[in-house]
Amino acid sequence: MNKAVFLDRDGTINDNSRIVNNPDELVLYSEAVEALRLLGDCGYRLIVVTNQGGVSLGHMNDEMLARINLRMVEQLMARGVFLDGIYASTWHERGDQSRGDDPSWRKPESGMLLRAAHDMGIDLKSSFMVGDRATDLEAGRAAGCRTVLVLTGDGDKVDLSAAAPDVIAGNLLEAAKRILALDSSISQQDR
After folding, report:
1. What 3-state class would DSSP assign to 6?
2. 159 is catalytic
3. Residue 155 to residues 6, 96, 145, 149, 160: CA-CA distances in angstroms?
4. 10 is in an annotated binding site
5. Do β-strands 4-7 and 146-150 pair in parallel, antiparallel, or remain unpaired?
6. Neighbour-count burial of 21, counting CB atoms closer than 10 A to its CB (0-12 exposed, 13-18 middle, 19+ buried)
7. Can you tell me the mean pLDDT for 53-67?
8. Where is this site: Contributes to substrate recognition (predicted)?
9. Neighbour tally for 79: CB within 10 Å
10. Is 11 helix (H, G, I), strand (E, B) or coil?
11. I need a labelling partner for 190 at 20 to 30 A (CA). Which of 14, 24, 101, 170 fits?
12. Could you write out the three-class secondary structure of 137-148?
């Protein structure tokens, strides 16, 4: 079984001070590349799980979402970082229900994580969910992962007592270092 770091996209990997509805609006956080490289080099599968309800709300279409994700992949690949998967929930409670999107995929539900775990042979108990919102942490916890709140994006607005993250980190690079330290201490206990 593989271990993974599930990553929210907007506010965790890229700046979300503006809503990202086209590829030109996607700006990676400066520390994201180093953080993802570090985690990938240490054997973690890197899987993006992102709520993109703007599709069912009509703010963008499926093709535009694919182009935005491709832009992220290309920017990371150009720097030697490779994602193992991207799972996106386009369902939204106020969106176009005729699309047939699965509401169990939208965080705080755990559907995207469970699907990725099935697809890639992921051991969820050895994995982490990193995000900037309580819904990210709830999805990770529901799937059986340890959770990391980053204080980028909307992370500084999260009610810590309600969200109860396992780890709090200033940004994705700090989160990566904390994950690796925690993983190392757990591995040593197993010996």
Report:
1. strand
2. no
3. 16, 29, 19, 7, 9
4. yes
5. unpaired
6. middle
7. 94
8. 106
9. 13
10. coil
11. 170
12. HHHHHHHCCEEE
